[in-house]
Design a protein that fits this description.
The complex is a heterodimer of chains A (about 120) and B (about 120). Chain A is mostly beta strands and about 120 residues long. In chain A, about 0% of the residues lie in helices and about 50% in strands. Chain A has a single domain, classed as Immunoglobulins (Immunoglobulin-like), CATH 2.60.40.10. In chain A, strands 2, 4, 5, 6, 9, 10 and 11 form a 7-stranded mixed β-sheet that branches. A 4-stranded antiparallel β-sheet of chain A has the order 1-3-8-7, with no helix packed on it. Chain A is globular, with a radius of gyration of 13 Å. Chain B has a single domain, classed as Immunoglobulin-like (Sandwich), CATH 2.60.40. Chain B has about 120 residues and is mainly β. Chain B is about 0% helix and about 50% strand. The radius of gyration of chain B is 14 Å and the shape is globular. In chain B, strand 8 and strand 9 form a beta hairpin. Chain B is built from no helices and 12 strands. In chain B, strands 2, 5, 6, 10, 11 and 12 form a 6-stranded mixed β-sheet that branches. In chain B, strands 3-9-8-7 form a 4-stranded antiparallel β-sheet, with no helix packed on it. The chains are: A mainly beta (about 120), B mainly beta (about 120). Chains A and B meet through strand 4, strand 5 and strand 9 of A and strand 5, strand 6, strand 10 and strand 11 of B.
């Protein structure tokens, strides 16, 4: 079974530039999560979807961040105008359902450096 | 709001020695609790998870964790550490609403270094 696939693995930007991260979840998983993990910190939830619907995006900086999952499969997270504070690893995870006790399957992440 | 605290940012342990990693949670009620591990250059992987019931949970690679409602804790243990246990360990909590939620909140992580 293929795992969660993310691309690119690394991104280096200047402040003000835009960047997109792409995630392909495990086939059949209806729930998809985006987490931000700053260096030496735990993952912090940005947004999550059930199928194509956003369940919770309250932690997503809406002025510069956006996330979509148009067909309920792959997802894209975009930063419109990156800031140095956005430097972090962006993790995508999927799970078979939205049940509270369900385990999450994580991708390797995209490591973003904003100079 | 639910939260998780891991008071030890770094732990150094000798190979073959025992290991305990601490986790305290803040949540009204009985939550679902998890330990995930992040090996170097790999994604987060589930070690074990707790459902209400037996307070001691067995996981992979000889790890176990014990839930204590009175102490609001979910500490992770291993009797004999191997060099391959060198990793960052995260405690996480999810709402136990009996329904749909799926929102997992992570602690800050504990870096475990194994020395010979």
């Amino acid at each position: 079974e293929a795992g969660v696939t993310q691309s690119p693995r690394y991104a280096v930007l200047q402040e003000g530039q835009a960047v997109s991260f792409w995630c392909d979840p495990i086939s059949g998983h209806d729930t998809l999560y985006w987490y931000q993990q700053p260096r030496d910190q735990g993952p912090q939830l940005l947004v999550y979807f059930r199928d194509e619907a956003v369940i919770d995006n309250s932690q997503l900086p809406s002025d510069r961040f956006s996330a979509v999952r148009p067909k309920g499969t792959n997802s894209t997270l975009k930063i419109q105008s990156a800031k140095q504070g956005d430097t972090a690893t962006y993790l995508c995870a999927s799970s078979p359902s939205l049940i509270s006790n369900e385990r999450l399957f994580f991708g390797h992440g995209t490591k973003l450096s904003v100079l | 709001a639910q939260s998780v605290t891991q008071p030890d940012a770094r732990v150094t342990v000798s190979e073959g020695a025992s290991l305990q990693l601490r986790c305290k949670y803040s949540y009204f009620g009985t939550p679902y609790l998890f330990w995930y591990v992040q090996y170097p250059r790999q994604g987060l992987q589930l070690l074990l998870k707790y459902y209400p019931g037996d307070p001691v949970v067995q996981g992979v690679n000889g790890f176990e964790a014990e839930f204590s409602k009175s102490n609001s804790s979910f500490h992770l243990r291993k009797a004999s550490v191997h060099w391959s246990d060198w990793a960052v360990y995260f405690c996480a909590v999810s709402l136990n609403t009996g329904g749909l939620s799926g929102k997992l909140t992570f602690g800050e992580g504990t870096q475990v270094t194994v020395i010979s």
